């Protein structure tokens, strides 16, 4: 089958960074589904995995961790899906990705595609939605009864665009998002943010110290760390999805009895946790919210035909660092 893969980890300007290749079509067993991929989206994780390094693959490595498509076959332990179902999912970073004609994926991390979305619109949702959902409702422990302030650092990106919507529709929190350009400010306001602050200026100067009950950091954890520890309220919580290349100083959180926690969307699939099926369940909940008109797809740019050229274009845009919402590549 056709796929987009890499043998070497190269700058995206090099055509060999991502190539059109032929690989074997997967077979499925156990909990797996075989999905005919109709659309994918590209995330920062794709570019981080592909980033230049001294490593050589003996067989093509296929990237891609967001997809929407149609179930073609099911493993013997699959109970919740049938051939012909339209699905969406973010996949498993330890397995071959979605940039291919077909993909084998664990059914427990798959949801039924919202009926009112195209495949491309649906492919924009899974990874960012799972990340935002887990960060808000599991890591930070926010519930529908939660009150106070939520600060989302990086509101216009893929995860921020979903986090704003989820927090506004499902909680009573005041949602403060950061954005620095007129177009990103407008985007965050359109999604429902109550207040916008500029992350390129001093956050402490724009907000009151000790006033933020929950902070979701989606950009430059190290760079924002001092501001976050000053802004977080006593007994508040900070969650980040962005790795730090330096140790984070936890001491400022001690007197506040405040906490810090990581969110990594691939944890459940990577470690085959006992609650792995929660990802499929939350995607189904998200699908229902989309069909009710409460949550919208964050697709902002689309390329037609899943091939190496278009995937490289999407990687290039992601690496420029000013993407709003999501970029998808589809065959329909």
From TrEMBL:
SMART domains: PKS_ER (SM00829)
Superkingdom, taxonomy of origin: Bacteria
Zinc keyword on record: yes
Gene3D superfamilies xrefs: Medium-chain alcohol dehydrogenases, catalytic domain, NAD(P)-binding Rossmann-like Domain
Residue ranges of every copy of the Enoyl reductase (ER) domain listed in the record: 16-329
Transmembrane stretches, start-end: none
Keywords for this protein: Metal-binding, NADP, Oxidoreductase, Zinc
InterPro entries assigned: ADH-like_N, ADH_Zn_typ-1, ER, GroES-like_sf, NAD(P)-bd_dom_sf, Zinc-ADH_QOR/CCCR
UniProt similarity note: Belongs to the zinc-containing alcohol dehydrogenase family. Quinone oxidoreductase subfamily.
Name the record gives this protein: Zinc-type alcohol dehydrogenase-like protein
Organism, scientific name: Thalassotalea eurytherma
């Amino acid at each position: 089958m056709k796929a987009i893969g890499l043998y070497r980890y190269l700058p995206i300007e090099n055509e060999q960074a991502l190539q059109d290749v032929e690989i074997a079509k997967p077979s499925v067993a156990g909990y797996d589904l075989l999905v005919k991929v109709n659309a994918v989206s590209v995330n920062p994780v794709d570019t981080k995995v592909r980033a230049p390094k001294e490593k050589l693959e003996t067989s093509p490595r296929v990237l891609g961790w967001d997809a929407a498509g149609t179930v073609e076959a099911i493993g013997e332990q699959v109970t919740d899906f049938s051939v012909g179902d339209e699905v969406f999912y973010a996949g498993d970073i330890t397995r071959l990705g979605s940039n291919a004609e077909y993909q084998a994926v664990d059914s427990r991390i798959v949801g039924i595609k919202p009926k009112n979305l195209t495949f491309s619109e649906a492919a924009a949702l899974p990874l960012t939605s799972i990340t935002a959902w887990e960060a808000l409702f599991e890591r930070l422990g926010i519930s529908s009864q939660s009150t106070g302030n939520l600060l989302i650092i990086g509101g216009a990106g893929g995860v921020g665009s979903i986090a704003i919507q989820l927090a506004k529709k499902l909680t009573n929190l005041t949602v403060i998002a950061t954005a620095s350009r007129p177009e990103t400010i407008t985007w965050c306001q359109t999604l429902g943010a109550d207040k916008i602050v500029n992350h390129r200026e001093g956050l402490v100067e724009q907000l009151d110290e000790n006033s933020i009950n929950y902070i979701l950091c989606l950009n430059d954890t190290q760079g924002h760390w001092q501001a976050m520890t000053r802004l977080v309220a006593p007994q508040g919580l900070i969650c980040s999805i962005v790795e730090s290349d330096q140790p984070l100083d936890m001491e400022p959180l001690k007197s506040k009895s405040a906490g810090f926690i990581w969110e990594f969307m691939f944890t459940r699939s990577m470690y085959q946790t006992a609650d792995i099926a929660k990802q499929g369940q939350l995607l189904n909940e998200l699908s229902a919210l989309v069909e009710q008109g409460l949550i919208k797809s964050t697709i902002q740019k689309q390329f037609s035909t899943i091939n190496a050229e278009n995937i490289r274009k999407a990687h290039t845009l992601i690496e420029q660092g000013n993407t709003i919402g999501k970029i998808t590549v589809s065959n329909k």
